[in-house]
Automatic annotation (TrEMBL):
<dbReference type="InterPro" id="IPR005119">
    <property type="entry name" value="LysR_subst-bd"/>
</dbReference>
<dbReference type="Pfam" id="PF03466">
    <property type="entry name" value="LysR_substrate"/>
</dbReference>
<keyword id="KW-0805">Transcription regulation</keyword>
<dbReference type="InterPro" id="IPR036390">
    <property type="entry name" value="WH_DNA-bd_sf"/>
</dbReference>
<comment type="similarity">
    <text>Belongs to the LysR transcriptional regulatory family.</text>
</comment>
<dbReference type="InterPro" id="IPR036388">
    <property type="entry name" value="WH-like_DNA-bd_sf"/>
</dbReference>
<dbReference type="InterPro" id="IPR050950">
    <property type="entry name" value="HTH-type_LysR_regulators"/>
</dbReference>
<keyword id="KW-0238">DNA-binding</keyword>
<keyword id="KW-0804">Transcription</keyword>
<protein>
    <submittedName>
        <fullName>LysR family transcriptional regulator</fullName>
    </submittedName>
</protein>
<feature type="domain" description="HTH lysR-type">
    <location>
        <begin position="1"/>
        <end position="58"/>
    </location>
</feature>
<dbReference type="Pfam" id="PF00126">
    <property type="entry name" value="HTH_1"/>
</dbReference>
<dbReference type="InterPro" id="IPR000847">
    <property type="entry name" value="LysR_HTH_N"/>
</dbReference>
Length: 288
């Protein structure tokens, strides 16, 4: 027994005629006849007396009609209830660091809205370490982060990209003509870096320490615009992801040797239930 069969039966019962029922439902007459026949065979009863083109409910048909109407009304109620529930779906909260936001936004957000129009996405800008902590505290559902951090093991994660760090300067900087840069060459160079709690800066600190250099950092900032504008002034250098360098032709990006590769990952809390939509969003971001 299918809801469609019940609907066809009830409309035929109201019109007492298969032709009129088919016209009302925008289906063929055989579709109505076959639905009624299938119900009669399934339950082993005759639902209608047939007199030429007129249909009249049998006693069994009258009982079945009342039950069928109740089932259809209940199905409509359930459908409406879940449509309302869909409108109240909890938003998906996504964290992303400022530098990665420069790479992935607004394209990622626009693509998510196009592919998941019913989902209310809320984006929050946090550094990778803070975003990871907020995922563990369930204040974020998903985050896109620099995966080169110890806390990454506390989360479920999937690597979605890799980015090399380039040393960046203005075109008129004395080092702008270099084909590659060794960290030892930067011992006396004024640098501007992101805040000290960023994964990128922690990585650079380890790399400088490994070659015996104490970097000359004149400013730590959380604002990528400030960082890039300072570099354009021609007096300082910084480190940026390759993708950011490619988007700013007015600065020079020089590969670092040996290369400093950073893995980018999407993370979510281990053991936390993720509904089907959230799982699809995670998979979509992974393949973005």
């Amino acid at each position: 027994m299918k809801l469609t069969q019940l609907e066809y039966f009830c409309v035929a019962a109201r019109y007492h005629n298969i032709t009129k029922a088919a016209k009302e439902l925008f289906v063929t007459q055989p579709s109505i006849s076959n639905a009624i026949k299938a119900l009669e065979e399934e339950f082993g009863v005759n639902l209608f007396f047939r007199n030429n083109n007129k249909l009249t409910l049998t006693p069994e048909g009258e009982l079945f009609y009342k039950s069928a109407e109740g089932l259809l009304a209940h199905a409509d109620s359930v459908e409406m209830e879940f449509h309302e529930l869909r409108k109240k779906i909890t938003p998906i909260r996504i964290g992303i660091p400022p530098m990665l936001g420069t790479i992935y936004l607004p394209e990622l957000y626009l693509s998510l809205k196009e592919n998941f129009p019913e989902v209310d996405f809320r984006l929050f800008e946090f550094g990778s370490i803070k975003a990871c902590d907020l995922v563990l505290e369930e204040k974020l559902d998903i985050a896109i982060v620099n995966a080169e951090q110890p806390a990454i093991d506390k989360c479920n994660s999937r690597i979605i990209d890799t980015e090399d760090l380039y040393f960046c300067v203005a075109p008129d900087h004395p080092l702008a003509e270099q084909k590659t840069i060794l960290l030892t060459m930067l011992a006396n160079e004024p640098l501007i870096l992101f805040n000290t709690d960023s994964v990128q800066v922690m990585t650079l600190t380890r790399q400088f320490k490994a070659v015996g250099v104490t970097p000359r950092v004149i400013l730590n900032t959380s604002q990528i615009t400030t960082l890039i504008n300072m570099v354009k002034s021609g007096h300082v250098g910084t480190f940026l992801y390759r993708s950011i360098v490619e988007a700013h032709p007015d600065i020079v990006g020089i590969p670092v040797m040996p290369s400093i590769e950073q893995r980018i990952g999407v993370i979510w809390k281990k053991g936390k239930y993720q509904n089907t939509t959230a799982e699809k969003v995670i998979k979509y971001i992974e393949n973005f």
